[in-house]
Write a sequence for this structure.
């Protein structure tokens, strides 16, 4: 008799578990894409009493590699050696070889600007060629010899993307003469 009661209780518990499982799975969302159970209620937003911090899009971002340093080393005059003679009004293409001797990569926002002397028709602010740290490259500026004869000098400096000067300056030093045999 005891075995019979245990068997009845066992069958009752099995039936109860089967029904519970069927009810619970019927209430759950379907895992099929795009199919929702009619019992599913989407979550709603709850107002909070604290502000979520946001970043200012106009603040410079911190470089994850840490701070870097800007530096420029003048290596050589690639064109127009110092003291070269030009006729008045002549176009002069001056190129300097430089090295990015810092740890920052020069981006398109870097520039070179005139420090002193005559601009000789060149824009006073020009783009600096992007160069990776440790690499060499060139700076090229197109000048025009002044119409008046004499000696002319133009000194230039590199600037980073925030307008801060860095590195060695470089210059062009020419003579303008109407005499070709000067």
């Amino acid at each position: 008799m005891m075995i019979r009661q245990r068997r009845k209780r066992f069958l009752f518990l099995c039936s109860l578990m089967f029904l519970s499982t069927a009810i619970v799975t019927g209430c759950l969302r379907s895992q099929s894409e795009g199919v929702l159970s009619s019992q599913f209620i989407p979550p709603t937003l709850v107002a909070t009493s604290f502000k979520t911090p946001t970043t200012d899009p106009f603040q410079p971002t911190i470089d994850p590699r840490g701070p870097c340093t800007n530096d420029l080393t003048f290596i050589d005059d690639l064109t127009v050696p110092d003291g070269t003679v030009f006729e008045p009004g002549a176009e002069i293409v001056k190129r300097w070889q430089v090295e990015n001797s810092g740890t920052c990569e020069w981006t398109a926002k870097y520039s070179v600007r005139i420090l002193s002397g005559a601009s000789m028709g060149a824009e006073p602010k020009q783009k600096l060629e992007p160069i990776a740290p440790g690499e060499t490259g060139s700076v090229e500026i197109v000048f025009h010899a002044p119409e008046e004869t004499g000696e002319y000098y133009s000194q230039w400096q590199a600037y980073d993307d925030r307008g801060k000067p860095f590195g060695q300056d470089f210059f062009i030093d020419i003579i303008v003469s109407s005499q070709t045999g000067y």
Observations:
- The mean pLDDT is 84.
